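## Example pair
The file below holds two records. Each record gives the amino-acid sequence first, followed by its structure token line.
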Amino acid sequence: HADDEDSDYHQEPYKESYKDRRRRAHTQAEQKRRDAIKKGYDDLQAIVPTCEQQDFSIGSQKLSKAIVLQKTIDYIQFLHKEKKKQEEEVSTLRKDVMALKIMKVNYEQIVKAHQDNPNEGKDQVSDEVKFNVFQGIMDSLFQSFNASISVTSFQELSACVFSWIEEHCKPQTLRDIVIGVLHQLKSQLY
């Protein structure tokens, strides 16, 4: 019987110390978790520009976690919009580069053709006459363009431009305009 009491006496402190150890381990784990969360919020506050305090008169006031999260979400959304905008700009620049490359090839072909036949075109009309032909074509096109286009909004402008192209820029219409301008200039020149 004395052995039983003895064994009880030795087991009790062991049970308590085991509980204490578990409690202490749990407390430490909880503290570690809280510290990690606090560090996360501190890091967000340091990284996100809109979380920086501007009012120095109140000192370095701590923002609430809800505000830090909201400002972080807003900042990420802003970055996504900026990224999309930059991607659109890159796409536009790529198209510009492609157009310039095509123009370069065309100009190189024109220069090569001129170098191969340097005497060709000595009897060509003057630049002034060429410009008058171009101006006559453009003036004629602008009259119909101006009458057809509405500029109340960009959407309406876009719709009108396509409608004008379909109606007034058909090959036959353009051909008739060019022939009319050339006849008019011919009668002026001769």
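Second record, same layout:
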Amino acid sequence: KVGWYNAVLQPVFHLPYPDDTLAFVVLSTPSMFDKALKPFVNKERLKTIRDPVDQCVSHHLSRLKERFPGQKVDIIFDYEILPSRKPKFLAQTAAHVAGAAYYYQRKDVKLDPWGEKKIYGVCIHPKYGGWFAIRGLLLFPDIQVPFLEQSAPVDCVSTEEKRIELLEQFNFHWQDGHYRDIIEVKERYSEEQKAYFATPPAERLRLLGLTQ
């Protein structure tokens, strides 16, 4: 429910819907690359492609919207920002309150070793670890669900030592991706997918066989 999200954030980040409004957080799993992105790129080859992943997600969520012809559906994508440069929604918070993935933050560590350093939090999925992404939010403004019960996300990094290791890896060594394997995972990105996301955005089109 939108109210679960708004309840844990400052008013400046609130979503402008009644508390009981139904919302879905959309995640992409490791298989998205082969099952959705590559077919999308092949099909759209002759059209303008700017950011393949964003356009692919937009394409599929727009198609999903068409499946509810009599229903108002609002979509907010993870990359959208407000004129103030703030994101339109805080993806990791949304995933946590929806029970999709646990958002580990500095406050989850009792003996904080970082002093004055800025430490960013990170979501970990119980099945995919850090090998997934939060892509968007689907909101159904006309559907109110007052009796929906909130499910807590799975706390899969449960020891203090592991949480410190996770936040250390994510904040100071994120490029090597080791934080993604903080737990044993069922599936991770393919080598091709790792190479794609490790490539600077401006060079990714060439990697997919596309030119600017």
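Notes on the second record: The beta strands are 21-28, 74-77, 102-104, 122-124, 133-144. The chain has a mean pLDDT of 93.
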